From TrEMBL:
GO terms for molecular function: NAD+ nucleosidase activity, cyclic ADP-ribose generating. Gene3D superfamilies: Toll/interleukin-1 receptor homology (TIR) domain. Keywords: Hydrolase, Membrane, NAD, Transmembrane, Transmembrane helix. It comes from Bernardetia litoralis (strain ATCC 23117 / DSM 6794 / NBRC 15988 / NCIMB 1366 / Fx l1 / Sio-4) (Flexibacter litoralis). The chain crosses the membrane at residues 718-739. GO terms for biological process: signal transduction. Pfam families: TIR_2. Its EC number is 3.2.2.6. It catalyses: NAD(+) + H2O = ADP-D-ribose + nicotinamide + H(+). Residues 1-159, 282-423, 505-635 form the TIR domain. InterPro entries: TIR_dom, Toll_tir_struct_dom_sf. This is ADP-ribosyl cyclase/cyclic ADP-ribose hydrolase.
Length: 931
């Protein structure tokens, strides 16, 4: 549970003052962490204090001699500063000097243990004066709230004696009624110099200011601490809206005179940028190359970058491995190579050490090979003439060497200026370099997998890549750009190979998942690609600068299958829900892969879908059987799913273009589509055809028939014209050479007519078959949509073009409709009664009506879902009646019990438990009568 504030103080002078402050805040409705109230007896007080600081929005420090010279209060202040908490200093009796005295061994040990446990530099603090100086250093320029008191030694002794008698009453202050009682108010010790109430109002004003920023600070740090405590597991990172909200919070700008109430800690920054990296397929924005001697400067640069929300990767270089034996150099080299390829920018921390370091020079060569943008940061003075050629050619540096001054404040300002310059370079042309990285990563993967076609770019992504390649090639010819900015030969080869495969590749599987399950999703994507399956995976398929939501929709629409990774995180994600609903609206085949067990399936999933269970397996070992099952599922009706995706896209394109006839199917393509639709409906294939697909294919058939009718009219007009021409020819046969010439022309036209007539005779049968197919298919579609009157009209027209076997088929369909129509009225009357009973929660009666409606034989699909739901309600009702019967028997109300159990048996006549209970009722009834 979060608290509004944590109070840190020294008991000797401040216990009474803090007691008054705690009571005042409690009465105003604030939740405050106060050690006397919040540390239960027998608990580890140091852990309780740490947790109290972590969960508090503000850190109140009572400035008094004991607090400012106590190593334990210093530890609390150090931890609050480490977490970036807002510190509110309250001046009770501040001091700036003290009589020096060495710390005890126990006090010094506590400080050392704290610094080491938190990965901090162990400071040389050996005396009370050292503690005081460090406390003021940590307070910095934070303004104090003045609530000063004058305390004599007698006042302090009175406070000490009072607290001995009050010790067992502190924890009752959690009870508001106890605190409200004036008899329980904390007495005032000493004399107030400043008005306590005025000071208290100023404290409230600080606590209330910028609460939204402060609350989010606390929320993120608590999640970050959990992530760190669990060895930084990726499933604990931020995802979706939470991640975006945290990124916006981290990079929020405050315009002067406004100031942030507190600053994000390094842990905040690491947690948020690692979440961002996890969302970006583990890729980063900056690779930092440095020698071990410049570790301090590099860490400072890293912390500055991540506080700006920039993702950073540091190599596992000689800092970690200089004492390792048996280090595998080949694996190290490949890992570093991949890290550089997966970064937008390469930052080289230059010094004499890094200029001579073999690891650094190898990393630089990789960056040059990959045409990375290289940014040089000069950490220490170097002799430029002694630098390797690769470094000498890099003309401009960001110079940190001019920051070394005796004035630490000026040093920090200079560094911030240099850091801002570095960030500006990283953000310049951001989308171009991000795509440079993404396409390079995919191209390297394609090359490593022996030019696996499954990794090639397709559709919209390929169009984006072509635009990017053109932009990069223009830069090659620009006088302002260098070779480092341009695409590599591998980029070009990869994109050109993708272009040659246009029309032969489509996305077979769209992978939908929660970013919490990102590791498993990446593994599954990799395995599918290795097995030759083309995937649509957001971390690979969304170019920089694109509309994320639109790209996701396009990805679903262009993929043959929709694979959903099932876990508690994914079913609670609104993004995943939207993806599933869009896939269902597109009629996609849904494949469920269970990664983690879920308590209940969401309502939006169709009930017939079964999952493939990966939840019990180690990703690296025992997954073969489940993965083979997934591949078998993808292979099932593969041609059908591919055509489903194809016709869905064409239908959407037709619909988007205002149903323009130019986008309709013609010729062989139309014949294939008709056959596919017929097979789909005949065999109830999954995925089923969508309404827009049916409309699109039927409209294509109608358009084709219209064109054929136009052709027939043209032939008819030609025939009439030629007949008239023959008559004219006979009437004018004596007109000599002119008539002879006209005769020749007419003979030619007559021959053309004969050819046209022969062609018409040859195509008559085919036309007749197409017309039958058109009207028959239309009638079938209307019949399935329960538009019976329209269906009968089209069946009747179809009879005009039917042969003997087709006539039988049509007559059977008409008879079936004539049988169904009388059932329709009865069916809907029963459904209406069922709905009315359901509304008043009479579930048993509702079930009975829906069951009767189902037995009518009109349309079972319309009541199937209702029956499934009501069956559960009926079971509950039966159990309720069973319990009621037992209760009535215990009260010797046998007749009522018999009536209840008889009613229950009407709905479950073969239920053995009900039958045995009926026997029990009968026996008790007979026993009662005999008595």
């Amino acid at each position: 549970m979060t608290k509004d504030a944590f109070i840190s103080y020294g008991r000797r002078e401040s216990l009474g003052f803090v007691g008054r402050l705690y009571q005042s805040l409690k009465l105003r409705g604030y939740e405050i962490w106060f050690d006397k109230v919040n540390i239960p007896d027998g608990d580890d007080y140091s852990k309780r204090i740490s947790h109290g600081i972590e969960s508090a929005h503000n850190f109140i420090l009572i400035l008094a001699p004991r607090c400012l010279t106590s190593p334990y209060c210093l530890i609390e202040l150090e931890y609050a500063r480490k977490l970036g908490k807002r510190v509110i200093p309250i001046d009770q009796n501040v001091i700036f000097d003290t009589k020096d005295a060495p710390l005890s061994y126990q006090e010094r040990s506590a400080l050392v243990q704290f610094y080491e446990a938190n990965g901090m530099e162990v400071l040389p603090i050996f005396s009370k004066k050292d503690v005081l100086n460090r406390s003021h250093e940590l307070l910095g320029k934070t303004d104090w709230v003045h609530t000063r008191q004058q305390l004599s030694e007698d006042d302090i002794n009175q406070l000490y004696n009072w607290q001995l008698t009050y010790e067992n009453r502190w924890q009752r202050h959690e009870e508001l009624e106890f605190t409200k009682n004036t008899e329980n108010q904390i007495p005032i010790f000493g004399k107030d110099i400043d008005n306590f109430e005025e000071g208290f109002e100023r404290i409230l004003k600080v606590i209330e200011s910028q609460k939204e920023y402060i609350y989010l600070h606390t929320e993120i740090i608590q999640k970050a601490l959990l992530w760190e405590a669990n060895r930084r597991q990726t499933n604990l990172l931020l995802v979706g809206k939470q991640r975006q909200k945290a990124q916006n919070w981290l990079t929020q700008n405050f315009v002067s005179p406004n100031q942030p109430p507190c600053l994000p800690s390094v842990l905040h920054s690491e947690f948020i940028t690692e979440s961002k990296k996890n969302a970006d397929n583990l890729m980063s924005e900056v690779f930092l190359c440095f020698a071990p001697q410049e570790n301090k400067e590099t860490q400072k640069i890293r912390k500055g970058l991540i506080k700006a929300g920039i993702t950073v990767i540091l190599p596992n270089n000689s800092i970690q491995r200089e004492n390792q034996k048996g280090f595998d150099t080949s694996n190290y080299t490949e890992e570093i190579k991949e890290q550089i390829a997966h970064a937008d920018n390469f930052v080289f921390v230059l010094s004499n050490s890094s200029a001579k370091n073999s690891d650094c020079l190898r990393e630089l060569r990789f960056a040059l090979t990959f045409h990375k943008r290289i940014i040089v940061v000069l950490a220490k003075e170097v002799n430029k003439k002694e630098l390797p050629e690769a470094l000498r050619s890099l003309s401009s540096y960001i110079d940190l060497t001019d920051n070394r001054t005796e004035d630490n404040f000026t040093n920090n300002l200079d560094f911030e200026k240099d850091l801002s310059e570095l960030i500006c370079i990283i953000e310049d042309n951001y989308d171009y370099y991000r795509n440079h990285k993404r396409y390079l990563a995919q191209a390297l993967k394609w090359k490593e997998q022996h030019q696996n076609d499954a990794i090639l770019l397709r559709g919209h992504n390929l169009e984006k890549a072509q635009t990017w390649l053109h932009q990069g090639q223009l830069q090659r010819n620009s006088a302002n750009s260098t070779k480092l900015n341009t695409p590599t030969k591998l980029h070009k080869k990869f994109i050109e190979e993708s272009i040659t495969k246009i029309g032969t590749l489509s996305s077979e599987v769209f992978i939908s998942y929660s970013r919490t399950d990102g590791d498993f999703a990446r593994w599954l994507n990799e395995e599918l690609q290795l097995n030759g399956r083309t995937t649509w995976f957001d971390q690979e398929c969304i170019p920089a600068g694109s509309d994320f939501g639109l790209e996701i929709k396009n990805g679903i629409e262009t993929s043959d299958n929709f694979l959903f990774i099932l876990s508690p995180a994914s079913i609670s994600s609104p993004y995943c829900k939207d993806e599933v609903l869009h896939a269902l609206s597109m009629g996609k085949r849904i494949i469920l892969v269970r990664f983690q067990a879920v308590e209940k399936m969401p309502d939006y999933f169709p009930s017939h879908i079964q999952w493939i269970d990966f939840s019990k397996n180690d990703l690296q070992a025992d997954n073969g059987q489940q993965f083979r099952e997934l591949l078998r599922t993808l292979n099932t009706d593969r041609e059908h799913t591919q055509k489903h995706s194809k016709y869905q896209q064409k239908a959407l394109e037709w619909n988007t273009n205002e149903k323009n006839y130019a986008f309709l199917l013609i010729g062989n393509e139309l014949a294939i589509a008709e056959n596919w639709l017929e097979e789909c409906q005949k065999h109830n294939k999954i995925p089923t055809s969508t309404s827009i697909q049916k409309d699109f294919i039927f409209e294509s058939i109608k358009s084709a028939n219209t064109q054929k009718r136009k052709q027939e009219k043209t032939i008819l007009r030609l025939r009439v014209f030629l007949t008239l021409a023959v008559i004219a020819l006979l009437a004018a046969c004596g007109l000599g050479l002119w008539v002879h010439s006209l005769n020749m022309q007419n003979q030619i036209q007559f021959l053309e007519l004969k050819v046209a007539q022969d062609s018409l005779i040859q195509t008559t049968e085919k036309e007749k078959a197409l017309k039958f197919q058109n009207y028959f298919q239309t009638a079938n579609y209307q019949k399935s949509s329960t538009k019976y009157e329209e269906a009968i009209k089209n069946y009747t027209i179809a009879l005009n073009f039917a042969d003997s076997s087709q006539t039988i088929k049509v007559n059977q369909a008409i008879q079936q409709i004539e049988t169904i129509i009388p059932k329709k009225e009865t069916f809907f009357k029963l459904v209406e009664k069922g709905e009315n009973a359901f509304k008043i929660k009479n579930f048993v009666e509702a079930y009975n009506y829906y069951k009767q409606a189902d037995s009518v034989g009109y349309n079972s699909h319309l009541v199937k879902t209702h029956l499934e739901v009501l069956e559960e309600y009926v079971k509950l009702e039966i159990n309720k009646m069973k319990q009621q019967t037992i209760h009535l028997l215990e009260k010797n109300k046998e007749k009522q019990a018999y009536s209840t159990i008889t009613k229950a048996l009407l709905f479950a006549p073969s239920d053995t438990s009900l039958l045995s209970l009926e026997k029990r009722v009968m026996r008790q009834m007979l026993g009662t009568e005999n008595n």
